[in-house]
Automatic annotation (TrEMBL):
Residues 671-686, 765-781 have a biased composition (Acidic residues). GO terms for molecular function: protein phosphatase activator activity. This is Serine/threonine-protein phosphatase 4 regulatory subunit 3. Residues 144-649 form the Serine/threonine-protein phosphatase 4 regulatory subunit 3-like central domain. It holds the Pfam family PP4R3. Residues 714-725 have a biased composition (Low complexity). It comes from Eleginops maclovinus. Residues 5-101 form the PP4R3 EVH1-like domain. One of its GO terms (cellular component) is protein phosphatase 4 complex. Regulatory subunit of serine/threonine-protein phosphatase 4.
Amino acid sequence: MSDTRRRVKVYTLNEDRQWDDRGTGHVSSTFVERLKGISLLVRAESDGSLLLESKISPNTAYQKQQDTLIVWSEADNYDLALSFQEKAGCDEIWEKICQVQGKDPALDITQDPIDESEEERFEEIPETSHLVELPSCELSRLEEIADLVTSVLSSPIRREKLALALMSEGYIKKLLGLFRVCEDLDNREGLHHLYEIVRGVLFLNKAALFEVMFSDDCIMDVVGCLEYDPALVQPKRHREFLTKTAKFKEVIPITDSELRQKIHQTYRVQYIQDIILPTPSVFEENFLSTLTSFIFFNKVEIVSMLQEDEKFLTEVFAQLTDESTEDSKRRELVNFVKEFCAFSQTLQPQNRDAFFKTLANLGILPALEIVMGMDDLQVRAAATDIFSYLVEFSPSMVREFVMQEPQQTDDDVLLINVVIKQMICDSDPELGGAVQLMGLLRTLIDPENMLASTNKTEKTEFLSFFYKYCMHVLTAPLLANTAHDKISKDLQEGSAKINPVCPDNFQTAQLLALILELLTFCVEHHTYHIKTYIMNKDLLRRVLVLMNSKHTFLALCALRFMRRIIGLKDEYYNRYIIKGNLFEPVINALLDNGTRYNLLNSAIIELFEFIKVEDVKSLIAHIVDNFYKALESIEYVQTFKGLKGRYEQEKDRQSQRLNRYRRDARSLDEDEELLFNDDDDDDEGEAVEKSRMEDDFADSYGKYMEAKKGAANGANGANNNGKAAVIPPASQAVTPNNSSASSVKTVALPATPVVKTAMVGLVDYPDDEDEEEEEEEEEEEQSPRKRPRLSS
């Protein structure tokens, strides 16, 4: 069996500076006699042929990248890379390389860039001390410069030396001066070389170089160089876009020139990374890591500078909430705050906490309450994004704000109700905004993120608030779309199961599905509050109307809601379901679905399977008593037969308990009789016992026969005959005996066959029939309490 940890792809760098895949195999490190040292061997997984045999040289610079990549150079123009399937395998080989070279495996490069091996002193690149000697910055030598910059990219050591040379001689500005000359002369060949040079300098990944290249007087020339990609027929017009199309908007004038410059720089560098530079290959991703860091720290600095300017932010929120602010201006303000919050995601956790607390103190939540209720779709969308940042940062902060509102405002303008209404009124056919808002509501009402230690009452207080002020707004569309269920059922009695109340509109169906998803979450996490709400509103009945929807996903949502309720195994819910006969719409949906083996079919069967496996006795009895005739024909699963079996087992257990009670009661009466008749002989006592058991059999058999629907008259006759043979008409115990017998018959009816079969072998004494009848009459007169106790 192959070891996936050692599975690698072998790459070599070709003359066009592109990586070629040489094959996939398994790597090992072993001593090779021919090479006189520990070597890396890669054998092809297809045929076992040798893909790579490379001695680990003590002076070779190996570099580990991205946890699964090892890159090194073996000759001037022969660079190699191993790409591992698993990090563990890469770490294992890296440790072996470091062991051979005597280096610390924690490092990502095995050779110090400042240290130079003897081999490097004879490389093609001329050196003066530790720097690379750069060609003079002239038009005629641009090709030579481009070749030099391109050739060092594969070697970390050479990249380091070139970067030092570029910084020490002010070379970058000289190159950009040549760019302006080439552009004036329309020297396309020179411009193509400059593209390669500037791109290569960016890939040197040095912050000090970026500071020079992205300064105000250089950055547009850098962008200009990157317009002339040799692969393009016509150059791109990036500078035109940055200077004319992209407009910098100051919603509130920024007086700090340093802050304004930083914003401009960040936007342009982000544009270079995202738009101009091609997507880096797997081997080039680390080349631009410093560029990413440069943008990151710029954003942090911008947020910090804005946050410290209290006058600026105060003015932003003042204009945002001012009724006289024009709609276009308010749109710009909301977009600014959104961008501001997005930048804050780059902050460290403690700084991000301070940032959002600053926004909260400035009144971000009251401002959102206003702008989220506006008609402008762009404003509402941006406000939703801001709200999501706040909820993600601190749900408790949002909950604390909304719980203070009822004292000051009407229900309709509560922040959570504004959010719910925006979710309900989402005009997007795919309900993209509604889905986002539903997720935010779910976070707010999730007890898991409610503080337990510092504020133990948050959960109780907020949920009470939510169910009092907000739940009716959330369920309004659901109740409105299922309002006439009873009328439609009455009109359609005996007709096809099509409910005109169910929404045919796909968008409405999607909205109801979202609401049901949230209600299902409530059932799982809000035990008391949601239970009270469901009972008071008869919510489950209204939800199950949607089982008739032509949209299967909506029917499944309704079914999932019921499944969560039953999954709680709460008898309070079970009694509610039984009393309302709420299985009927589910079973109708199953029967209407016919023989289709689809998701709806499987989900309904799983519901009944759960009830069977968990042995929910009250629901099993209700289902079998009311629906088994409709379900017994379904035989492709054993679920419903299993429910019937569970039902019969429970009836048998009840019958056996009742039977035990009857035998115990009679045994006690027999002992009392023996105290009063201790002079009777053994034969007489045996006759009394036989008579008692014969009477039990006759009584039980009579009741069993009464239960037979096909032979009701015959059963009644047999029962009357049996009673006539045992009970004298003039006995004072006749009336209570008859009433108690009928009472027992009703309770023990389903289990009487068991009683019958148990008694037959004990009382079948036909020869003693007369003696038993006489003894039974005497026993009845002596112990009138026996029969009445059966009904107690």
